[in-house]
């Protein structure tokens, strides 16, 4: 997977969340909000999100990485860093 | 001959609305095949038949509301060997027996061939007279989402259970050379059966034929899954709705707007000119359609919950117990198991908690069963109802049968399926009935404990809160550990606190040995 920039990573995240919660309203989510709380993702939804992200980006996302997937901004940072490392 | 009756899809269900027939007279059906879609106060449920046979007369028209137990159709016994459509198996050698119903119908090869060779006339009139009710409905039903569920629907898990309605002409009519299961599969996959060459006996279309079929090349409308469902419910043609979402995707709001436009001025609406107007008022099943609008659904569901919970609190003297359980062992075990797994195969703590709750019920059977006619009736199986909250409000409690016997992986798979279907698609009748104990988990909503209201006629409800880290004293040492608060709401008529205490203690003990669950 080629390295993602911030904008690409963020739109990937939003797309993935939208697949899980079709009517997710991102105007409600500040970059540093816990999006799971705001958008009401339960643990199964979150697992689906991890699945989608790791498939699309082609990086392994372990459970130990979950704390890095709390807000939109740290999830973006995580994806940018991970995709950057591999190249 | 037996009757296929309106099933009870929950203790609080007195009547149901037959929304749609998925079979026709003459179809051979097998135990577990989906026969019809029934609307309850809470959801549209796919109802399966409980025995194999041939569908006889359909007794109830779509759009009719009938009490639980009312015969909906006749199922005739069959001398037919129990084979799926198209799978090898000799034709019926009727001999002296009466001619099986299906062979009396001009179905099978003749119709299929006609369908395959049909040019402009895309209806099979010969097949019409035998199938009154559902045909009328199928024929009039406005085409909502003609697009196929793409082969790539793996990427869009939310689409797979969105039922595509039969096409207004051709489609459902001409495909009698396939069994109901196969037809249903085709509908789900958006495959036009009339374009298939059956490889089964006598040219019947088999499941494999459908599975291998390329979906038609109709352009796929970009739409959110919820919008898709809504469009289907409201009878709005998605292709004609202007999408305002990302990349022009149709969102639920767009569908509602389109619906309003339709309701306002006919002709100026986004409907395609080559289709008849929506004509909701002229439908004999207009009531059905109206009932299935999400807004109304939310209302009726609210009322259903209100009724059931009021009854519970009126009749059941609840008692409540609570205990905090150290989840270190379970957490470690999960981490170890999940480390080697891809996200798709990982377990969440809820799966383990569920398993523990089910196994503990085996140890304390007095909490697993029903309060009926002034006494407790223990259940022979442990069927756990899972409270699933819906995003538009309300909740459903689909059932995992024999949950105590399923390994955590299987339980996890069932859990995912049920939650997804409860929220996005349709549950099956068998998934709505038979719960002997309910588990609710509000951990994801961020609370630590939930004291539930029992779902009558069950006698207990188990609750789990969030898994949180808390200071924990063990062996004289203070440490930080993951813990969960498990609660029990139980019917004091059936059990006393000591029994409930034994149950929660068992849950705790089981969770200390997760590898044995």
Polypeptide structure, described:
The complex is a heterodimer of chains A (87) and B (517). Chain A has 87 residues and is mainly alpha-helical. Chain A has one domain (6-24, 32-86): Orthogonal Bundle (Non-ribosomal Peptide Synthetase Peptidyl Carrier Protein, Chain A), CATH 1.10.1200. In chain A, 56% of the residues lie in helices and 0% in strands. Chain A contains four helices and no strands. Chain A has helices at residues 6-20, 35-38, 43-57, 72-86. The radius of gyration of chain A is 12 Å and the shape is globular. The mean pLDDT of chain A is 89. By secondary structure, chain B is an alpha+beta fold. Chain B folds into three domains: 2-145 and 166-212, RNA polymerase II/Efflux pump adaptor protein, barrel-sandwich hybrid domain (OB fold (Dihydrolipoamide Acetyltransferase, E2P)), CATH 2.40.50; 225-284, no CATH class; 317-516, 2-Layer Sandwich (Chloramphenicol Acetyltransferase), CATH 3.30.559. Chain B is built from 13 helices and 20 strands. In chain B, the strands form five sheets. In chain B, strands 9, 12, 15, 17, 18, 19 and 20 form a seven-stranded mixed sheet that branches. A five-stranded mixed sheet of chain B has the order 7-2-4-5-16. A four-stranded antiparallel sheet of chain B has the order 1-8-6-3, with no helix packed on it. In chain B, β13 (388-389) and β14 (395-396) form a beta hairpin. The longest helix of chain B has 22 residues, at 294-315. Chain B is globular. Chain B starts with a strand and ends in a 6-residue tail after the last helix. Residues 80-176, 215-219 and 264-292 of chain B have low confidence and may be disordered. The interface between A and B is medium-sized, with 21 and 30 residues.
